[in-house]
Amino acid sequence: MMSSCNVSKFLSANQILLKKESVSIEGDQLPVERTRLRDNLIYLTNNIPFKKEAVYTYFKNQGRIDSAGGVRRTFYKMISQEPVFFDSLSINKTRVNMVNYLKKEGYFDAEVTYETSIKGKFGSVKYIATPKGRYTFRDVAYEVREPEIAVFLSPYWDKSYLKRGEVVSDANYQLEKNRVSNILFDNGFYFFDPNLVGPLIADSVGHKVNVAFRINETEDRKVVQRYRIGRINIHSDFDQNYSKLYNLDTMINNYRFLQINPKFRVKPSTILRYVYLESGDYYSKSNFTRTYRQLSRLGLFRFINVNQSIDDVDTTLLNVDLYLPPAKTLDFAYSFDASYANLRTSAAAIPSTILNQVGVSVNKRNLFNGGESIRSNASVGYETSFNRAVNRVDIKFQNNLSFPRFMDFLGIISGLKKIKTKDGYLLTRQFVETLDDRVTTNISADIDFVNFQDWYKYININGTYGFDVIQDNEHQYRWNHLGINYFKPNVYSLYQEVLNKNYFLKQSFENPRLFTGILFKDFVFLYKTADDNFGQNKKFNVSVELSGFEVNLLNKLISPDKEWKLFNTGEFSKYYKIYAEVSQTKRLFGRVLGAAKVGVGVSQPFGSSSTVPYLKQFEIGGPFSLRAFPIRKIGPGSYVDPVQEQLFPNGPFYQTGDMKFEFLSEIRFPLFYIFKGAILLDAGNIWSLSKSDTDREGARFRWKDKPWNQLAVGTGLGLRADLSFFVLRLDVGTILKNPYRLDGSYNPYNSLKNRLGHLEYNLALNYPF
Fold first, then answer.
1. End of a domain among 292, 323, 354?
2. Among 210, 250, 281, 455, which residue carries the largest CB count within 10 Å?
3. Do 170 and 276 fall into the same domain?
4. Element (H or E) spanning 593, and its range?
5. Closest CA to 224 of 177, 190, 179
6. Is residue 346 part of a domain?
7. Are 218 and 96 found together in one domain?
8. Alpha-carbon distance values, 11 to 6, 96, 121, 126, 622 (Å)
9. Same structural domain for residues 624 and 768?
10. Across-strand partners of 336?
């Protein structure tokens, strides 16, 4: 196949394909600065890795791509790449763009040259950038040629981005230009033109620059006029094809509502809650943007159109019309998933698993005419293997009622807002505005039935009340105030045999349980940066879960001599669980990326509970964890379960623990076409934290046992098909070190043949972190 992908035959005599572009930095910049400059200069090149097979596919199917149907056309575009030709004019244009970029970064004496190389029908370019010295601000003056604007801005200059010692860069100039423009736009200067902000007037002494930030004069008097909001019309069921008189024309709280339908589909109070415009206020661009964003978030309108016009009588007033065409409020969706998961080879068996799931969901928006929505989803999943038709059945019915606003039913936030501190209030104004703008209140009720053949079945009923907060594109929070979770298991004979010989597993799994949280159930924080041009990103998340705290407190206060039970046999589970993980993907060189993740978690029972419930304990292994080990096979610690080894050596596995540590890493590199490779290295384990866990030798986390010797270590290779919309991933792992000694050695394999016969295959979608 490789030799047959001859793209040269598609080229004319004078056509040459651009195969590679590279950048080198010459000079005495610090390594971090050199890397930053090189990465940003590379972005100015073609910046698309040359894939010979993808370019061949483009030429081969050139006539079919445009004429193909939607699905086929999308597939062709996924597996093909439009060629880039070697062109001296484009190369020189790129060189000029690089010089301009360096000057905008403060390197005003920068030079960029290039070297070219042509071999046959393929060409490459190397750009050599010499930034030289970087210029910084010395003295900054502000010149505003319009007196009205000069007087207004005079108190704001102390917050300027243009300060002595800062780099004379286009980024700092643009920050200051945007800052000044936004101040004016938010204080009535509706017609202010940012183009009046001229380029910096500079005079340099060495690499120190004296500059003047200038706002030029204008003949348009509207630019210096401050405007207030006049009348506000809200067309709450707007239809551009309707040309008759409105059937409803009414004033509500100084807002004029105009309706085609005499009845409101959306409550006026709901719309007004997200309109941050008031007659008589100075025009504020931020309030208009906030109004647009919040009304869009409701999902009740096909689009939001906000028009402003100068009043015919008082020309200092801006009249506002909000056009809100209604959207459909009922949606249906269907889903079907089929995948292979946790494929594994062994000398004795091939217990490969196939997972299938079908589901249907319905979403009803504007349920109570206040922007509320309810989503219900019903799904049936089943798991099969090559030696059994059905291993496991999972039936779920999930319901979520959401309100596009903060609903403080318990009054906790309302109380906290009233607490004063020496700096103001306990909850800042910015935090309260975030609750108003970016919070969705959720009430959920779910039922999950699982039947694992010959092992166990259970029903799990869960209800929560809490909030989702999207602070910005990088920060998200989820906080559940109230949560009730009822778990009722039923054990079959095979698993009962396991439980009878494993006290801790028996204690954590048998009997009904109720997980409770009244003031606090769980909290999740997620931070994720967007992928840059090289696929680099950072992620951090932490989750905290608490159950039984309020029940335990009330039990001690009301009946300290008697433990409360649920229906005499069920336990009120009392535990806490904390987990945090951080990951980063970073470019090492060229198109080679390094990625790593560290995760640490701990859970502990308290009160009358002796173990953390099995469903809430940590597990390790599998396609998104240690990829050389099947999920739930190893641990806790160096413990080897004799029941597992004797009766179920090929699974299913069931090992869990109270503490978890894992380190995952891989080096990702391009191979050919749409395929990428990876080299894997993972390490980690789980442990028990119970002091009474004395029957399972090596299971407890104790420093004297040197827990670093109990880490499981695996390596392997990965093959990934990058299909743009998703990544299909096959990781093949092999064990380097078991967490326990076997015949005096941590290495389970004494020969290459033995190792190759015990590889762990994991097929999954997208990257593991």
1. 323
2. 455
3. no
4. strand 592-605
5. 190
6. no
7. no
8. 10, 28, 8, 23, 47
9. yes
10. 358
d(CA 176, CA 174): 5
For tokens 């001859």, name the residue: 6
Mean pLDDT calculated for residue range 500-509: 86
Lowest-confidence segment of 397-406, 481-490, 758-767 by average pLDDT: 758-767
CATH number of the domain to which 640 belongs: 2.40.160.50
Shared domain check, 196 and 106 = no
Q: In this structure, are 245 and 293 located in the same domain? A: yes
pLDDT tens digits for range 229-255 = 999 999 999 999 998 889 999 999 999
For residue 112, give the CATH number of its domain. Answer: 3.10.20.310
- Would you state the pLDDT for residue 3? 45
Read out DSSP for 305-353?
A: EEEEEE-SS-TTEEEEEEE--B---EEEEEEEEEEEES-B--SS----E
Q: What is the pLDDT of residue 71?
A: 59
Q: Note the pLDDT of residue 660.
A: 98
pLDDT in tens, 533-556: 788 999 999 999 999 999 999 999
pTM, 2 dp = 0.79
Q: Enter the DSSP assignment of 530.
A: P
CB distance 447 to 422 below 8 Å = no
**Residue located via tokens 């002091």:** 691
Residue 195: CB partners within 8 Å, gap ≥ 6? none
Name 440's Cβ contacts closer than 8 Å, sequence gap at least 6. Answer: 402, 403, 404, 405, 467, 468
Burial class of residue 386 (count of CB atoms within 10 Å of its CB; 0-12, 13-18, 19+): exposed
The answer on pLDDT for 351 being more than 60 is no
Rounded CA separation 160/175 (Å): 9
Q: What string of DSSP letters covers 628-651?
A: TS-TT-S-STT---HHHHHH-TTS
Same domain (yes/no): 160, 124: no
Tens digit of each residue's pLDDT (9 = 90 or more) over 268-325: 999 999 999 999 999 999 999 999 999 998 989 999 999 999 999 999 999 999 999 9
Helix (H, G, I), strand (E, B), or coil: what is residue 9? helix
Contact 720, 674 (CB under 8 A): no
Close Cβ partners of 601 (under 8 Å, ≥ 6 residues apart): 577, 578, 579, 580, 618, 659, 660
In terms of residue numbers, what domain contains 214?
136-224
Q: Please say whether the dihedral angle defined by the alpha carbons of residues 525, 530, 531 and 532, taken in this order, is positive or negative.
A: negative
Considering the domain architecture, whether residues 101 and 192 belong to the same structural domain is answered as no
The reply to whether 469 falls in a domain is no
